Structure formats: C-alpha cells, structure tokens
Amino acid sequence: MQAVRTIAYALSQPSRRVYVGNYVLLGELGQGGSAHVYLAEHRFFKTRVALKLLKPAGAGQEEIRQLQFEAHLLTHLRHRHIVQALDFGWEQGIPYLAMEYAPRGTLQMSFSKEVPRPLSGILPAMLQAARALQYLHNHRVIHCDVKPENLLLGPSNEVWLADFGIATTVPPTLGRRYSGREVRGTARYMAPEQIQGNPLPASDQYALAVLVYEWLCGQPPFDGSALGICVQHVKTPPPRLRDHVPSISAAIERVVLKALAKDPHKRFAHVLEFASALKQASLLERSHLNLPMGAASVVSCRADSPFYPLGRNRAYLVEPGYIDDPVNTTLGRSEQARKA
Fold first, then answer.
1. Which side of the chain, N or C, has fewer Cβ within a 10 Å radius?
2. Count of alpha carbons within 13 Å of 58, Cβ hemisphere only?
3. Phi, psi values for residue 25, rounded to 5°
4. Is 304 a catalytic residue?
5. In the CATH hierarchy, which fold is given to the domain comprising 2-100?
6. Residue among 145, 204, 263, 324 flagged as catalytic
7. pLDDT tens digits, 248-306
8. CA 97 to chain centre
C-alpha cells in the first residue's frame, strides 16, 4: 500500500524507475474518481500499455470488485472498436489492469469544444462507437459512461470504446428497476432512466446522441451544475439543433432528437438503427446539396461495412462476422477473433 502511495512522488523524480508487476511506469495518462491510468512499458517485451491502478483511498471492496468485473468484460468482449485487456494483477494488495495503449489520445482531444462540426466530419467516429455499443448490447452489457474521454483513437485513428468502470449487465427483465443501486455516470451524458437508477441499453444510445448533438452544435443540449443538468435531462426537452446552427437539416435534427427522447421506448430500437438513420440523413443532405461523397475526418472508417436488413423498413449498420442475436448471446458464447 505504501509503495502505491509513493508512485506519484517517484514519477516526479526523473532518475527513478517505478515498477508495478512487470511494468515500468512512464507517466500518468489521466485519472478518475478511484483510479489512475499510467502509460507503462512491459519490462521484458518493451510493449507499451495503459495501466489502470486503483488509488489506495479508492481501493475498497466495491472498487476492487468493479475493476475485476471490468477486466473480465474486456477479456471476453472482443471487438476491434473496444479496447482490449492485456493483463491483470496485484501490486502491494492493489489491483491493476493493463490495456491496449491508444497513442493518439481521445476524441475529447481531437474534437474542439464549442466549435460546431459538420455531420460528415463526425459520422465515422459515431458509426464506430455505435458498432462497439451494439456489440456490447448484443452481449447484454450496458456501458453507462459514453463520453468523448472514453472514446480513444488507436494507431490508425480507429475508435476504441474504453473505461468500463461502471458498466453493468442487462437485468433479466428490462423494465425491472435496480434497488439500492448507486446512480453513476457523467451528468452531461446521462439518460433520464439512468439518472433514476434504471440504466438500459437505450441509455447508451442517449449518451451517444448527446455527443452527436454537442459535436453538431458546439455545445451540449443542457448545461449548468451536475444536479441542474440531471434535472433537465429528466424534465426539459432539448433545444432544437437548428436554434444553434440553422444550416443543420431537418432530417438530421429529427434523428438526433428521436434518440434524445425522454422515454427510452420512443428512441430507436437499437443503437445501430440510430447510426443507420443518421447516416441516411447525411446521405440525403449531401444529395440535396449536391456535395461530393468524400469527407475528411480525423477518424478512420471502413468503407466495406454493408447494410443488413432486419425487419420491415429497417437497416442496421453491421459488419461481417459481428452479427449476433441481441437476446440469446451471452458472455459465455465463443467470440469472434478481434479483427485487425
């Protein structure tokens, strides 16, 4: 425990090397309420990882259990847009989790705040995040903390969904409320039902829609104190996007506001249906404005992901090898190998 407490001090000494398990810490990447995340290098393989280490003050039984749950999830959930777990261990009684290192940072760093962006510039990142979330939901997992800081950029600018510290599993009956459960999340992106202690897969869709709204308008739908934002999420309709940016098309606005419906049952049936509808609205807008199809973006995106029709008048953006039954798949089912 004492060794962990002195990590911050030791890192400030240029000549001192600090080891956690088989890893030497190179510097801090960030921190949350209960954990630090360090850039680290394996002492033998010389590969770099992001190493999540619980803070001594935050290493209670619940925090330890949650980090073990996160490690378990990342070991079993294999998708090219979800960060991969590489190792799990203990240092002086404190658990740590080693994960893939995202050398290009986060979308928070790439997308400037308070600067509206065209849909063509954010669509690749949004589609990749939606694919990762749909994969989670197919395996009965809810992320519960979708935000720009948790969307990393890999070596080829591909999006990786990260930080499963407050993720939870879908209850057997979707309408069942959690009892005695602490409400967790980031107020700016929390769905009304999550604020009320009943997170659903549709809560991740809502958070992604808040992100899209924020990127399109340069500001979130609600602002203020954490409590004030939560009250607005529950009670106040979001302002129209075109009140902020008049050039946004009505079709795009309808899609985003549908995903921001207060009632989760009035949102899209699945997060990929939301993504598909947003892409279709983008294509309609380009066709109407006679714009070229190519659009520059800081995020790479595969062009070979087809539409698979699932039900009347519906199409979901999915990829070959990643079509799962959203009801019957479980973590125990054999997974597809992670694609390059």
1. C
2. 16
3. -80, 135
4. no
5. Phosphorylase Kinase; domain 1 (3.30.200)
6. 145
7. 999 999 999 999 999 999 999 999 999 999 999 988 766 655 544 443 344 443 333 33
8. 18
